[in-house]
């Protein structure tokens, strides 16, 4: 039997070690990619399972999407206007409606949802105080003195949205949900779950509106 030289043995061992290192690197890289993909899928996945038959709305200009029921209407005619916005509802036209208004706002300071709302309230309060100071009535109105004390918010789902209600004079019958992402903020404005002859099925539609919010995702 032919003996293998020490030099050849050393070469075989080195090649074996090199092959194992390469194999380990491939396995490790594959594992890291799988972990990264699972993480990205978890980040981009809706917070709950989208009901069967719901339709996806994708906005490629502002990089967000959400799902809504097939029996809801949608209007995107102002999505690229001076004040971009989208309307979805059940229905959005008629004598009795239920409409969710989605406004797209600039977020130049890249604030999160909480900070954006707090800054907005502070700016509005300061402007109101300035308006009162410059008017003939130097005493703040009752609404001005109590309006902001009632400001409250709650965090919603994985997007860390922020909700206001019963803060402004005009929103006593509506919820306002702010979702900040990078340089934009989406404002969802929709009727409360309370009886109103002008609102179509407020209890069911309000619950659906919250489910729509749960499907909101940002693509980057």
Assign the CATH architecture of the largest domain: 3-Layer(aba) Sandwich
Total domains, how many?
Answer: 2
Mean pLDDT: 80
CATH first level of the largest domain: which class? Answer: Alpha Beta
Q: Give a short account of the largest sheet.
A: 7 strands, antiparallel
Specify the number of helices.
4
How large is the share of residues in beta strands? 15-25%
Morphology call: elongated
- Helix-strand pattern: HEEEEEHHEEEEHE
The total beta strand count reads 10
Kindly report the CATH topology of the largest domain.
Answer: Protein Transport Mog1p, Chain A
Q: How much helix, percentage-wise, in residues?
A: 25-40%
Strand order, sheet with most strands: 3-4-5-9-8-7-6
Radius of gyration, Cα only, in angstroms?
Answer: 27 Å
Which terms would index this structure?
three-stranded antiparallel beta sheet; alpha+beta; 36% helix; 220 residues; single chain; 23% strand; 10 strands; Protein Transport Mog1p, Chain A; 4 helices; elongated
Tell me about this structure.
The protein starts with 5 loop residues before the first helix and ends with a strand. It is α+β, with helices and mostly antiparallel strands and 220 residues long. It is built from four helices and ten strands; from the N terminus they run αβββββααββββαβ. It folds into two domains: 1-44; 55-218, Protein Transport Mog1p, Chain A (3-Layer(aba) Sandwich). The strands form two sheets. A seven-stranded antiparallel β-sheet has the order 3-4-5-9-8-7-6, with helices on both faces. Helix content is 36%, strand content 23%. It has helices at residues 6-44, 113-134, 142-147, 202-214; strands at residues 55-59, 64-68, 73-75, 85-89, 99-106, 155-156, 161-165, 174-181, 184-191, 217-218.
